[in-house]
Amino acid sequence: MINREESHDEIGDNHIGSCAQNPLRKDAFDLSDDEKIESIKKDVKNILLTLGMDLTDDSMKGTPNRVAKMFVKEIFGGLNPDRKPKASTFDNNYKYGEMLVEKNIIVYSTCEHHLLPIIGRAHVAYISNGTVIGLSKMNRIVEYYSKRPQVQERLTMQIVQELQNALGTQDVACVIDAKHLCVNSRGISDIESSTVTSEFGGKFKEAQARREFLDYIKLETKF
Ligand SMILES: [Zn+2]
After folding, report:
1. Backbone angles phi and psi of 83, in degrees to 5
2. In angstroms, what CA-CA distances link 200 with 62, 84, 179, 203, 211?
3. Which of 6, 75, 92, 111 has CA atoms 20 to 30 A from the CA of 180?
């Protein structure tokens, strides 16, 4: 029998995500960004002091503040719904009825089990049913959901759900191929392995559309 703490460790080490939404508390936004930065600054300082670092050293004295700002405003900035990109959509005036693929969108995220980077590429596709979305909006949606403590499976699903809502169609797909530094740089230290996740909605559940999408991802872009 394993105790509760061990079972939590095991969930983390095996990178199993526990739900489709990020586990946020109800009071997640009671504090302002500045209040969060002040609080996290103290916590980072305490970690470094506990490790025995001399924080009067010129190189490190700004570290607690830098890390706190980076957490709140950058790498976990996508937790705050105020930062959600406006999904401006348009009528599909040119009646393009085929699949649109935005591939090689760079993903910078953070593993919620180890707080180490997840770095990779997302490939997103949809088939318009009358509505289209600006191409860069797809990159922004990927970026927004990436900037959270994440598991890759959840990130993949969130991107698809967001685009399904914005476009009013189930016909959306996403594949992410990413390296997890918690696997590549520590633990098993396998620098070559990467993790692939996919979510296929609507027509992408059918073999033909899925194959077409996966073939487009393999295309090498020459210019
Ligand atoms: Zn991890």
Report:
1. -95, 5
2. 45, 23, 21, 8, 11
3. 6
How high is the pLDDT of residue 1? Answer: 43
Per-residue pLDDT tens over the stretch 113-144? 999 999 999 999 999 999 999 999 999 999 99
- Domain ranges for the chain, please list them: 31-75, 89-218
**Cβ count within 10 A of residue 36:** 20
Binding-site entries for Zn(2+): 111, 114, 182
Residue from 118, 124, 154, 123 nearest 24 by CA: 154
How far apart CA 156 and CA 150 sit, in angstroms, is 10
Nearest residue to 123 (alpha-carbon basis) of 36, 212, 21, 12: 212
Q: Do domains 31-75 and 89-218 have the same CATH topology?
A: no
> pLDDT tens, 71-90?
999 999 999 999 999 878 88
- Tell me how far apart the alpha carbons of residues 38 and 7 are, in angstroms, rounded to a whole number: 32
109 CA → ligand 1 middle, Å: 11
150 Cα–ligand 1 center, Å: 9
What is the rounded distance in angstroms from the CA atom of residue 108 to the CA atom of residue 148? 10
Q: Which CATH number among 1.10.286.10, 3.40.830.10, 1.20.1270.90, 3.40.390.30 corresponds to the domain 31-75?
A: 1.10.286.10
Which segments in the chain show pLDDT lower than 50? 1-2
